[in-house]
Amino acid sequence: MKYRRFGRLGWQVAEIGLGTWGMGGWSGSDDDASRAALRRALESGCNFLDTALAYGNGRSEQLIRDVLADWQGPAPVVATKIPPKNLKWPARDTTPLADAFPPDHIRASTERSLRNLGLNRVDLQQFHVWTDAWAEDDSWVRAASALKEEGLVRGIGISVNRWEPMNVAKALRTGVIDAVQVVYNIFDQAPEDELFPLCEALDVAVIARVPFDEGSLTGALKVGATWPAGDWRNVYFTPDNLRETLARVDRIRPDAPGGMDLAELALRFTLHHPRMSTVIPGMRTAAHVDRNVAASDGRPLDAGCLTALRRHRWDRTTVIP
């Protein structure tokens, strides 16, 4: 496993972390398999675990607690998220900050996450949604800063709305935010334009989420795929969107170097950017862990491959969770 500096916080984190949304919030999850995946990840040197209070109403956090209870190795970096009080994803500019993140909710959510995780302090606490319309309201600044001052958290981050990578710039310039989490993959390359340079200038860590575009970039999805009722992938992959997505995936396949599957190609693309601190694919089984951590071997994609992958950029604007 290769490690990277986590922005100005200075932590050395695995460049391939573990995202736990699927463990708590997706259909088909199995708690025993999830615990096994978490253990395998830690054993493989994956020391960055990303979760959220909203993932299964604390279920993912509790799975991490179960595994850390008997883990004898180095303590991983644990990142979680505060859900908006109004439970509205994504954040809208017209929503008052008080509806989403009043100070008492920021604190109560953090304390609940700490209980779920079995920890006295969480390494990174993130706002799970964001709009920069809130940036100049200093109530969130005071609440977040108090959590750090009291030792309940070590760093503060923001998870940016999908396809709105710069809807965080004002918040970053406050100097309060230590890390930003953003959708970044072969399709979603827009963060490179302005967000990554801003993070470089401010020394803010970058966490890449959704490296597989919710599964399409693994190459495993087929036209007509559906999921059980309540699984959010039914919202993301509407029939028309799924058909267009898979057509685009087919156009990527010829650009993969010989012997490399799409999932590996997707991970290596996300890792290529020097501003990247860690990428957090969802991994619900030990087999997922083994496959993904193998991409952390220090072998970058060559310039020709990267040039080819640039052609698959897909700038989407419809805001969804």
- Strand order, sheet with most strands: 3-4-5-6-7-8-9-10
Number of domains: 1
User: So what's the overall shape?
Assistant: globular
Number of strands: 10
Q: Termini distance?
A: 31 Å
The overall pLDDT average reads 95
Overall CATH architecture:
Alpha-Beta Barrel
CATH class category label: Alpha Beta
Low-pLDDT sequence parts: none
Which topology does CATH recognise?
TIM Barrel
Radius of gyration: 19 Å
Short description:
With 321 residues, this protein is of the alpha/beta class. It is built from 13 helices and ten strands.
SSE blueprint and pairings:
Layout: E1 3-6, E2 11-14, E3 18-19, H1 21-25, H2 31-43, E4 48-50, H3 59-68, E5 77-82, H4 97-100, H5 103-117, E6 122-127, H6 138-149, E7 153-159, H7 169-172, E8 179-183, H8 195-202, E9 205-209, H9 233-236, H10 239-252, H11 262-271, E10 278-279, H12 286-293, H13 303-310
Parallel strand pairs: 3-4, 4-5, 5-6, 6-7, 7-8, 8-9, 9-10
Antiparallel strand pairs: 1-2
Walkthrough of the structure:
This protein has 321 residues and is an alpha/beta fold. The protein has a single domain, classed as TIM Barrel (Alpha-Beta Barrel), CATH 3.20.20.100. Helices cover 36% and strands 14% of the residues. The protein contains 13 helices and 10 strands. It has helices at 21-25, 31-43, 59-68, 97-100, 103-117, 138-149, 169-172, 195-202, 233-236, 239-252, 262-271, 286-293, 303-310; strands at residues 3-6, 11-14, 18-19, 48-50, 77-82, 122-127, 153-159, 179-183, 205-209, 278-279. The strands form 2 sheets. Strands 3-4-5-6-7-8-9-10 form an 8-stranded parallel β-sheet, with helices on one face. α7 links the parallel β7 (153-159) and β8. α2 crosses α3. The model has no long low-confidence stretch (mean pLDDT 95).
